[in-house]
Design a protein that fits this description.
Elements (H helix, E strand, L loop, with lengths): L10 E4 L5 H12 L3 E5 L13 H12 L3 E5 L6 H12 L4 E4 L14 H29 L2 E6 L2 H5 L5 H21 L4 E8 L12 H6 L6 H8 L9 E5 L2 E5 L18 H11 L11 H16 L16
Parallel strand pairs: 1-2, 1-4, 2-3, 4-5, 5-6, 6-7
Antiparallel strand pairs: 7-8
Helix pairs in contact: 1-8, 3-4, 4-6
Bound molecules: 1,4-dihydronicotinamide adenine dinucleotide (NAI).
Length: 319
């Protein structure tokens, strides 16, 4: 099974680390030898105001236990500044945990431009900005570990969270592409959808659940995914209460709704609907290339091809 997973010599930037999940990540990385940049803007859960107190408290906590940590108080919108703190204080950046978050829940009709923009700025643009600033350093070091924090609200949708769920699902797309672009530089990127008691969830969960779902039951997955020995990338995980599960896409075999002589019509779609939506023989596609390959196969069967590859109209299956 191997020994303890250590992070000696590694520099970790945790955004929104002044409390909740981010604080727990920062504490656990520091406990295992990493130098940690504790970033937190210190505003309200709706993204208003700012303060140095949240980040300072966690830095003091880490230092009191003999760990290495430094505070950064910039908003994640300004990723360069966060990474600059890591480089200035510790000389490198190895691991980025995109965790900072706010909520501005409203039913769809009541969402203002500000509610939409602020959520996207913090979650999606913030994770982009911080990761982009760290990327060249990771490439140069031929090592990097990035975590994107999505949510079950993004994956499945959630009443009153149109702004948040859109941004959170955007993070899955960002994570997927970074995992592809990072491969040749030993940079991995994974997305987690955590559930834990925090000031965000105390607005929607009963107090007993907030107390029971400890951030400690999420953090070890983040550490595992960010260890140098872990190569997994492009994953999407649900995690909470100590339970962890991986998600993936599923696609039906589908149906072609035309022939070489009969055109595609709304009626032909209707007539194939049961087959289009039948998951009994579903496969698990993992790349955009699979779709292109499949479509070239369909064209080959119906129209004599495009001069490209063949697919025989059958879907490639992947794990
Ligand atoms: P939290 O409110 O306890 O912690 C979030 C921290 O981010 C706060 O300390 C806040 O000051 C900081 N922050 C907010 N905007 C910032 C900005 N622009 N720049 C820097 N720091 C900023 O929340 P929690 O629950 O620990 O959430 C952490 C992440 O996990 C968030 O991205 C959240 O959306 C996500 N999440 C949490 C779930 C849960 O069950 N707690 C469920 C699904 C997702």
């Amino acid at each position: 099974m191997g020994g303890p997973l250590r992070f000696d010599g590694k520099v970790v930037l945790v955004t929104g680390a002044g409390q909740g999940l981010g604080r727990q990540y920062a504490l656990q990385f520091a406990e295992r030898g990493a130098a940690v940049v504790v970033n937190d803007l210190g505003g309200s859960f709706k993204g208003e105001g700012q303060s140095t107190r949240a980040a300072d408290t966690v830095v003091e906590e880490i230092r009191a236990k003999g760990g290495k940590a430094v505070a950064n108080y910039d908003s994640v919108e300004f990723g360069e500044k966060l990474v600059e703190t890591a480089i200035k204080e510790f000389g490198r950046i190895d691991i980025v945990i995109n965790n900072a978050g706010i909520l501005r829940d409203k039913s769809f009709a009541r969402i203002s431009d500000l509610d939409w923009d602020l959520i996207h700025k913090v979650h999606l643009r913030g994770s982009f900005s911080v990761s982009r600033a760290a990327w060249p350093h990771m490439r140069k070091n031929n090592f990097g570990r990035i975590i994107m924090t999505t949510s079950v609200a993004g994956i499945f949708g959630n009443f009153g969270q149109a702004n948040y769920s859109a941004a959170k699902m955007g993070l899955v797309g960002l994570s997927n592409t970074l995992s592809l672009e990072g491969k040749k530089y030993n940079i991995t990127c994974n997305a987690i959808a955590p559930t834990a008691g925090s000031r965000l969830t105390e607005t929607v969960m009963p107090p007993e659940l907030v107390a029971a779902l400890k951030p400690e039951y999420v953090a070890p997955l983040v550490l595992y995914l960010c260890h140098e020995g872990t190569q997994d990338t492009g994953g999407l995980f649900e995690v909470g209460a100590g339970w962890i599960a991986k998600l993936r896409w599923q696609r039906t075999i589908g149906a072609v709704c035309r022939t070489s002589t009969v055109p595609m019509t709304p009626e032909s779609v209707r007539d194939q609907w049961d087959k289009i939506t039948d998951f009994s023989e579903a496969i698990h596609p993992v790349s955009a290339a699979e779709t292109t390959h499949h479509l070239i196969g369909v064209l080959g069967e119906l129209d004599g091809g495009t001069g490209g590859g063949t697919g025989g109209g059958k879907q490639a299956s992947s794990k």
